[in-house]
From TrEMBL:
<keyword id="KW-0808">Transferase</keyword>
<feature type="domain" description="Mannose-1-phosphate guanyltransferase C-terminal">
    <location>
        <begin position="110"/>
        <end position="221"/>
    </location>
</feature>
<dbReference type="Pfam" id="PF25087">
    <property type="entry name" value="GMPPB_C"/>
</dbReference>
<feature type="domain" description="Nucleotidyl transferase">
    <location>
        <begin position="4"/>
        <end position="88"/>
    </location>
</feature>
<comment type="similarity">
    <text>Belongs to the transferase hexapeptide repeat family.</text>
</comment>
<dbReference type="GO" id="GO:0016740">
    <property type="term" value="F:transferase activity"/>
</dbReference>
<protein>
    <recommendedName>
        <fullName>Bifunctional protein GlmU</fullName>
    </recommendedName>
</protein>
<dbReference type="InterPro" id="IPR050486">
    <property type="entry name" value="Mannose-1P_guanyltransferase"/>
</dbReference>
<dbReference type="InterPro" id="IPR056729">
    <property type="entry name" value="GMPPB_C"/>
</dbReference>
<dbReference type="InterPro" id="IPR005835">
    <property type="entry name" value="NTP_transferase_dom"/>
</dbReference>
<dbReference type="InterPro" id="IPR011004">
    <property type="entry name" value="Trimer_LpxA-like_sf"/>
</dbReference>
<dbReference type="Pfam" id="PF00483">
    <property type="entry name" value="NTP_transferase"/>
</dbReference>
<dbReference type="InterPro" id="IPR029044">
    <property type="entry name" value="Nucleotide-diphossugar_trans"/>
</dbReference>
Length: 244
């Protein structure tokens, strides 16, 4: 809560009946050295929350709020990255880096971003809200929509990818399917329902051909997947997945 521009109370994740303000703390701060002494005085068990420190700090210090009325995009869960990506792209035109090579037979929608030295092969169709990092290879006849593909990834021919994040150095084999759409996703101990999320594929993952990654799947780093496998749920890092 604020009076004028002075913060008089702050509460971390209040329950619905505890909400007394329509203001949200975006978590951007500028402090003087006094804050460090206040942090040391804060009682905590395990995680120390800065908001706990601030609730005591404002008893004898002025804490001013700066209002921001621009775009607000939350980024705390894996699929939020896709929402943020879409929100930012909606305010800009497509950007194709000069060193990128886009074959004449490829189709690029709008808006998309293609990084430096990336290669998009004939027949590939890159639809809306796709960001492709540097040095990425998109194989022939691949179809991609609403996705973020980090640097040095390879998407081999004939794959279909939707609502997905693909980490750096990852190779998605030929004729893979990463299904998009709405699903339920469990993150740690919390279940999120009706989430639009095809999946998250970590760094340096390698899938062989004809692999299906079902909606909501989260794959850790350095995973290898054999041909014909179907993945769902959470796959831990360094795992080797084979068709059972």
């Amino acid at each position: 809560m604020i009076e004028g521009n002075r913060v008089i109370d702050i509460k971390e994740k209040p329950k619905e009946h505890e909400i007394q303000s329509n203001l949200v703390n975006v978590g951007v701060y500028a402090f003087g050295p006094d804050i460090f002494a206040a942090i040391r005085r804060t009682n905590h068990y395990g995680e120390l929350k800065l908001t706990d420190t601030l609730r005591e700090f404002i008893d004898d210090h002025l804490l001013h709020a700066v209002h921001y009325d621009g775009m607000w995009l939350e980024l705390s869960r894996p699929w939020d990255l896709l929402s943020v990506n879409s929100g930012i792209l909606a305010q800009t035109d497509s950007v194709i880096a000069d060193p990128a090579v886009v074959s004449k037979g490829a189709t690029l929608g709008d808006p998309v971003v293609v990084g430096e030295h990336s290669r998009i092969q004939p027949g590939a169709r890159i639809f809306r809200d796709v960001v492709i990092g540097d040095n990425v290879t998109i194989g022939a006849n691949t179809v991609i929509t609403n996705a973020i593909i980090f640097e040095d990834a390879v998407i081999e021919p004939g794959s279909v990818i939707s609502d997905c994040i693909i980490g750096s150095g990852t190779t998605i084999g030929p004729l893979n399917s990463i299904e998009g759409g709405r699903t339920d996703v469990r993150v740690d101990d919390e279940l999120y329902t009706d989430v639009k999320f095809g999946g998250l594929v970590g760094d340096n993952v390698e899938t062989a051909g004809n692999v299906t990654i079902e909606p909501g799947t989260i794959i850790g780093n350095n995973v290898s997947v054999e041909s014909g496998s179907t993945l769902t749920g959470r796959i831990p890092e360094n795992a080797h997945v084979f068709r059972g």
